[in-house]
Write a structure and sequence with these properties.
With 134 residues, this protein is mainly α. Helices cover 76% and strands 0% of the residues.
Length: 134
């Protein structure tokens, strides 16, 4: 399929692709642990499995809304600086949160990552509403 010569989106696809790539090892880690510990459904009463599942689930629970807000901003002609700043904040925030929650990094990454993600929600939502009604 050939893409049109002019695209409406030029910045947010970068961050969506990066987030997609980050999600692959997160999901593989869950699957490999599940297979290695013979846990077919749920967490099997295994605290490590529960932590891995929640780490993956939190990523998928928070990324889509933030990604959608960034896409809307870009469609509403937000400047590249806004989009790169928020996109990078989202990628870094989700990565820190995952590392802190999954146990791969220091726990402080969890709250720092959540604050970063909530900041993306607040700033992008505020930008959209201001652009519409301000």
């Amino acid at each position: 399929m050939e893409l049109p010569a002019i695209s409406l989106l030029s910045v947010t696809p970068i961050y969506l692709a990066i987030l997609g790539l980050i999600f692959v090892p997160i999901t593989l880690r869950v699957g490999l642990y599940r297979a290695g510990h013979k846990i077919d459904i749920g967490d099997g009463g295994d605290d490590s499995m529960l932590r891995l599942m929640r780490s993956q689930a939190n990523f998928i629970e928070t990324v889509p809304l933030a990604a959608g807000l960034l896409v809307v901003m870009e469609l509403m002609a937000a400047g590249d600086t806004w989009l790169h700043a928020l996109g990078a904040t989202l990628v870094i925030g989700r990565s820190l949160h995952y590392l802190g929650l999954s146990g791969l990094g220091p726990f402080i990454g969890r709250p720092v990552g959540m604050v970063a993600t909530l900041s993306v929600y607040l700033i992008s939502s505020g930008w959209i509403l201001y652009s519409l009604f301000g």
